Amino acid sequence: MKISRLLIALAVVAAGAAYFMWHARPSAATVAAAPRAPSDPDVLRYPAGAPQLASIRAEPVQRVALPLAGPLNGRVVYNEDATARISSPINGRVVTIKAQLGDSVRAGQTLLVLDSPDLGSAESDLEKAQADANVKRLALVRAQTLYRGEALARKDLEAAQADYAAARAESRRARLRLHNLAPAGAVNADEGYPLRSPIAGVVVERQVNPGMEVRPDLPNPLFVVTDPARLWVSVDLPENLLGKVALGHPVAIEVDAYPGQRFAGHIDKIAPALDPVTRRIMLRCSVDSGAARLKAEMFARVTLLADADQLAFRIPNAALVSDGLYSYVFVEQAPGVLRKRRVTLAAQDRDYAYSVDSLRPGERIVTSGALLLNSELGVTQ
């Protein structure tokens, strides 16, 4: 009796196990979509058209100069060595404006024309001074002739010499005043006073309108002319990074207007003292704006770089997966074949990590979907 019960129990257990194994079998679709059994435990192999591949994006790894620190906040400003802030040296009323915002101008080109009584006065003063100097010169010549004929006292000769010297000085003063008002050359008060640009560049600011009364002591310049291809970037450097920078060190500059693009520059000025409030020191970087794409007053992110020969592979942080104390990326060896590789990081910032020798030029790494691949690899193992 006991043997019969035991046989019945064994039969029930065997039937249940068979039922479970039948219903737990993977479907044909599941088998086709899963990674093929890899010979290498760090490699995933997907057949063409596998649904996992739609969630994965691979890109070639880029090699860039190794950064010394994370990006710093900066601001694009005019290069003052290539910028002229132009005001009127005399009082007057604007008659004609000949340069508009955004116009390219040559050195010496007229920006506006003023109707200025001061210019007429300066020209008149010069003509009178020159005429007086000519009269005093002739008087001196006569005095010298009379003195040689002993018909004139020496003190009268000396008085004539003094009068001529004073007249020459007044003529020179009037000429210099007119030259100061019109350094670019001769002007005609009847035609108006031309305000000219001292440098070649682009008009980036204009604060004058027709009919406006101008004077030398206005708080703002009438025009600002600059070379838009030569700009500075001002950076506030934390005190603890001061030992990593030096004049001439390269920098990489990024702005929100051009995502993913870097503009090359270098440090050309380090302030002699820190700001006592912020404990930061000002750096000035020169940058080629690349066809004037950078604009003054843009906010920028400035990355301090090592020497040009110290290169590293730039890895988006989204491409990294962590396993314990180490970091890994997935390298695309062939279409559908992805290998998990350990990388050694030399630096890391908010957006990117940098590795010196863990990758090879031209290799493609997974930049989107790395976490999915890592979990899939864990399942297959």
TrEMBL record:
Belongs to the membrane fusion protein (MFP) (TC 8.A.1) family. It comes from Sulfuriferula plumbiphila. Transmembrane segments: none annotated. One of its GO terms (cellular component) is membrane. The keyword Lipoprotein does not apply. InterPro entries: Beta-barrel_RND_2 (IPR058792), BSH_CzcB-like (IPR058647), MFP_Cation_Efflux (IPR051909), RND_pump_MFP (IPR006143). Residues 231-305 form the CusB-like beta-barrel domain. The keyword Glycoprotein does not apply. Residues 150-177 form a coiled coil. Residues 83-226 form the CzcB-like barrel-sandwich hybrid domain. GO terms for molecular function: transmembrane transporter activity. This is Uncharacterized protein. One of its GO terms (biological process) is copper ion export. Keywords: Coiled coil, Transport.
